[in-house]
Amino acid sequence: QVQLVESGGGLVQPGGSLKLSCETSGFKFVSAAMSWHRQAPGKERELVAEFTAAGFGFSVNYPDFAKGRFTISKDIAKAMVYLQIDNLAPEDTAVYYCKALRRREWGGPSFEYWGRGTQVTVSS
Questions:
Q1: Residue 34 to residues 6, 84, 109, 117: CA-CA distances in angstroms?
Q2: 40-57 exposure pattern, b = at least 16 Cβ within 10 A, e = fewer
Q3: CA 35, CA 72: separation in Å to the nearest integer?
Q4: Mean pLDDT across the chain, nearest whole number?
Q5: In the chain, at which end, N or C, are there fewer CB atoms within 10 A of the end residue's CB?
Q6: Cα distance between residue 50 and residue 110, in whole Å
Q7: What are phi and psi of 39, to 5 degrees?
Q8: Residue 65's CB: how many other CB atoms inside 10 A?
């Protein structure tokens, strides 16, 4: 059974930091490109950080708003992916989701798995 379980969210004051974790199981971790997304109330889900390929590489990509404050990392041995968020602002309030993606063009079965998310609330 595939599982992606996010943790580490909570209430934090503006300017604070959080490190989110995503524990995965049920699929071959290195076969997927891992990423983090978020969805704020009334808004569409958006990408915040991603590894650009599956495997053992560490090439990453961030949208402009995330550069400098968001850092994605992974521990292949533990099949976990992390998101460090620094200098949090109220506009970062959202549910943060972990995703595992394998594209068809990479060969073999493709898939897309999502976790259920962890709430991050930034407020004084």
A1: 13, 14, 16, 14
A2: eeeeeeeebbbbeebeee
A3: 8
A4: 96
A5: N
A6: 17
A7: -140, 115
A8: 12
Confidence of residue 120 (pLDDT cuts 50, 70, 90): very high
Structure tokens at 65: 């708003």
Distance between CA atoms of residues 45 and 39, nearest Å:
4
Residue type, 71: T
- Nearest 5°: phi and psi at 17? -130, 155
For the record, the structure tokens of 51 come out as: 């590894």
pLDDT digits (tens, 9 = 90+) for 28-63: 999 999 999 999 999 999 999 999 988 888 899 999
CB 31 within 8 Å of CB 102: yes
Q: Cα(96)–Cα(110) distance, rounded to whole angstroms?
A: 23
Question: Letter for the amino acid at 73?
Answer: S
